[in-house]
C-alpha cells in the first residue's frame, strides 16, 4: 500500500482522535514505534490492517466503524490531492465513474507493482449508481466511507447500501447508491 494512505491515516488520527500524541501512542501500541511514511513508497498491507485494528481496540470501536470513518475522512482528501485528474464540474458520481479507468490508471501508470482496487461504477439513472469494489485487501469499509466522504465534500445526500460483501464470501463487494434530491 502506498505511503500516502498511511499519511492520511496519520492526519486522520491527529485531527479526529487527539493529536500527535495519539498517533505516537498508536504506533507504539501497534508495535511499530517511531516511523515516517513517505507518500510514494510502498508498505505492507498488513501494516495498515495492524494500525486500523489497534486503533479500533484503543477506541473501543469495531474495526469496521474505524475503517469506514477513515474512508469518509479520506474521500475529500483524495479529490484535493489528485485534483489534476478531477474536473471542477464533477460530483460524487462522476468521480466514482472515473476513479478506476482514469484516476487510478494515471496515478499508477508507471509503477509495475501497483495494486489499486478494481472499482467499477455504472449509472442506473441520474440519481442511482451501482458500484463494484474488488481488492485482495478487502477494505470495502474504507471504500464505503470514501463514497460518503465524497458526498459530503460535494454537499450531496447519498444513501449507500451494500448488497454483497467479500467478508461474507462474495468475490467482490457491491454497493447501490441513491442520490437524494
Provide keyphrases for this structure.
181 residues, 2 domains, H-NOX domain, 17% strand, alpha+beta, four-stranded antiparallel beta sheet
Give a structural overview.
This protein has helices at 3-16, 20-29, 45-59, 63-81, 92-108, 140-153; strands spanning 118-125, 128-134, 157-164, 173-180. It is α+β, with helices and mostly antiparallel strands and 181 residues long. It folds into 2 domains: 3-61; 70-180, H-NOX domain (Alpha-Beta Complex). Strands 1-2-4-3 form a 4-stranded antiparallel beta sheet. A hairpin with an 8-residue loop joins strand 3 (157-164) and strand 4 (173-180). Helix 1 (3-16) crosses helix 4, helix 3 (45-59) crosses helix 4 (63-81) and helix 4 crosses helix 6. It starts with a helix and ends with a strand. The mean pLDDT is 90.
Amino acid at each position: 500500500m502506498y505511503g500516502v494512505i498511511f499519511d492520511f491515516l496519520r492526519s486522520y488520527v491527529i485531527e479526529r482522535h487527539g493529536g500527535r500524541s495519539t498517533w505516537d501512542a498508536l504506533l507504539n501500541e501497534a508495535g511499530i514505534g517511531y516511523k515516517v511514511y513517505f507518500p510514494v513508497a510502498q508498505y505492507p498491507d498488513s501494516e495498515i490492517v495492524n494500525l486500523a485494528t489497534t486503533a479500533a481496540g484503543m477506541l473501543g470501536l469495531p474495526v469496521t466503524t474505524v475503517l469506514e470513518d477513515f474512508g469518509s475522512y479520506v474521500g475529500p482528501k483524495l479529490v484535493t490531492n489528485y485534483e489534476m485528474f478531477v474536473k471542477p464540474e464533477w460530483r460524487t458520481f462522476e468521480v466514482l465513474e472515473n476513479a478506476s479507468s482514469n484516476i487510478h490508471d494515471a496515478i499508477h501508470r508507471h509503477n509495475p507493482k501497483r495494486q489499486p482496487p478494481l472499482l467499477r461504477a455504472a449509472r442506473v439513472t441520474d440519481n442511482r449508481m451501482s458500484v463494484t469494489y474488488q481488492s485482495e485487501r478487502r477494505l470495502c469499509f474504507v471504500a464505503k466511507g470514501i463514497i460518503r466522504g465524497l458526498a459530503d465534500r460535494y454537499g450531496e445526500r447519498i444513501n449507500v447500501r451494500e448488497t454483497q460483501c467479500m467478508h461474507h464470501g462474495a468475490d467482490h463487494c457491491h454497493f447501490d447508491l441513491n442520490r437524494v434530491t
